[in-house]
Amino acid sequence: MYLVAFAAAWIAGLIIGLEANVYLPALFLLSITAVLLACLLRIRGASTWPAILIAVALVGFVRVEASGGNDHLGPSDSIKPIAVYGVIVSDPEISGTGVEFDISVEAVDRGNGLEESKGRVKVFSRPPRELVLSRDEPYFRYGDRLELTGRLEEPPVLGDFDYRAYLANQGIHSTMPFPQVRLLEDGGGTPARGF
Fold it and tell me: Is 170 exposed, middle or buried (0-12, 13-18, 19+ CB in 10 A)?
């Protein structure tokens, strides 16, 4: 019975950590409340189980927060393209008919306004004409802030090679093949990368 209660509290903490946007001071107050509840129950000679279960749920929540939570931008279910705003965080490489790079997402617009977002996306893109005319290959640079408009797709499994798992190990859960690209800011990344 105790194990079931522990497991339920742990799972509740994990779910709260994944789904809820909990304000940190509220979490701190809940922790203090659990300690005070345990002390009060102990003084009265009652079972401290409610306080222990709250503490287990808090540990589950903290575990999710420490792992980064649900911190990725998944594939788009909509047929309509979305706009992704972010910064190039890998060295752009020429690959086939385009350039391949990773972008750290800052915001997305799914057609109902700009909303903050996080995650990384693997992008395969053709450079816009203005970059081709003004820069050398591969045209994109580490730290460029871009607006990309296209569809987010799930990475494929390529025969025996699980490209999806390979990218997931790097924290990438979506690809964006050949989006429309607009340069918003030149080289907004780490200056040391430019050397």
Answer: exposed
